[in-house]
Amino acid sequence: MEVIGFTMALVVGLSLGFIGSGGSILAVPVLTYLFLLDEKVATAYSLFIVGSAALIGGLHQHRSNFVDWRTALVFGLPALLGVWMVRFFVVPVLPDVFFQYENFFFTRRMAMFGLFALLMVGAAYSMLFSKHQKGGTGIVTYNYPLILVEGLFVGALSGLVGAGGGFLIIPALVILANLEIKRAIGTSLIIVSIKSVIGFFLADAMIISIDWNFLMTFTSITIVGIFLGLYLSKFLSSAFLKRVFGYFIMIMAVFVFVMEFFVKT
User: Fold this and answer.
1) Could you give the angle at which helices 144-161 and 108-129 cross, rounded to 10 degrees?
2) What's residue 226's pLDDT?
3) What is the pTM of this model?
4) Which of 5, 54, 173, 254 could form a disulfide with 193 if both were Cys (CB 3.0 to 4.6 A apart)?
5) Residue 64 predicted with pLDDT over 70
6) CA–CA gap between residue 23 and residue 12 (Å, rounded)
7) With 70 as the cut, is the pLDDT of residue 135 above it?
8) Degrees to nearest 5, angle at CA 109 with 106 and 113
9) What pLDDT digit, counting tens, does each position of 178-188 carry?
10) pLDDT exceeds cutoff 60 at 100
C-alpha cells in the first residue's frame, strides 16, 4: 500500500505540473485510504504538501512573469487568516460525533470528508467546464471588500478540508482583480502556498505531532512529479489532460463519499 501511496504522490505532482491544479486535491484521499491517517492529520499534512508544491509551481510561473505579487498578498493574507483560524481554533474542538439518529452516527470525519467530496466535485467541474479560459483584460483593479470575504472563505474552506482551493481562487482573481488567465493561474499558486504552508506552521505544527520523515518523503515525490509534469506537458494537450484529471477527480469524489457514508470502517 505504501508503494501505491507514494506512486499516487507522483500523480499529485504530475497533475500540478500538467495543468497547474487538481493534483493537490488528491492528497487527502491518498493520505487517508492508503496511509490510513485520520482526518485531522491527513488534512494537516495535505496543507503542507499542497503549499510546498504550489510554491514550486508559483516560482516557475514567476520566471515567466505570470505572478502578480501585489494581488497575491491582497488575496493571500485574508486567506491565510482563514486557514489559521480554522486549523487553530475550530478543528481541534470539533466533536467526534455531531449527532446520532437511531443507529446512524454523523461523525467529524463524515463532516470533513463529505465537505471534501463536494469540493472535489467543484474542482472537477471547474476543470471540465471552466468559463474563465480567457480571463480579464489585464488592467488590474481591486474590489477589496469582496476580495477580503472571498479570501477568508477560501482560507477557511482550505483549513477544513486540507485542499488548496485553486479552482475557487482563479475565477475570483479574474472577476475581482481583472487578471488575465495565465497571471491568475500563476498568482493563485503563490496564494495557495502562502495560506497553506504558513497556516500549517502557525497552527497544526504547533498542536499535533508531525512525522517529518514521512511528510518530507511524500512532498519530495510530489515535487518530482511537478517537474516531470512540466516536461511532459510540452508534448501533450493541456485541454486533454485537464479533462482526464477532471473525470478522475470526479470518480475519486464518489469513492470518498461512498467510503465515508456507506462503507462501514
Assistant:
1) 120
2) 83
3) 0.85
4) 54
5) yes
6) 4
7) no
8) 105
9) 888 778 888 88
10) yes
Return the beta strands (E) in 181-264 as ranges: none
Q: Which of 218, 169, 228 is nearest to 194 (CA)?
A: 169
Candidates 49, 263, 142, 127; CA nearest to 57 is: 49
Question: Is pLDDT of 245 > 60?
Answer: yes
Report whether pLDDT(204) > 80: yes
| Long-range interactions of 26-34: CB distance < 8 A, separation 24+ | 26/249, 26/252, 27/162, 27/163, 27/222, 28/113, 28/116, 28/161, 28/162, 28/163, 29/252, 29/255, 29/256, 30/5, 31/5, 31/218, 32/113, 33/259, 34/1, 34/2, 34/4, 34/5, 34/8
Q: Which residues contact 114 (CB under 8 A, 6 or more apart)?
A: 257, 260, 261
- What cell was used for 38? 485520520
| Residues in Cβ contact with 216 at an 8 Å cutoff, skipping those fewer than 6 apart | none
Coil/strand/helix, residue 21:
coil
Query: pLDDT confidence of 17, banded at 50, 70, 90?
Result: confident
Q: Round the CA-based radius of gyration of the chain to a whole number and report it.
A: 18
Backbone angles phi and psi of 32, in degrees to 5: -80, -50
Distance (Å, rounded) from C-alpha 156 to C-alpha 90?
10
Q: How many helices and strands, by DSSP H and E, does the chain display?
A: 12, 2
More confident residue, 20 or 256: 256
At 250 the three-state DSSP class reads helix
What's the one-letter identity of residue 235?
F
Nearest to 52 by CA among 225, 168, 207: 225
Mean pLDDT score of the chain? 86
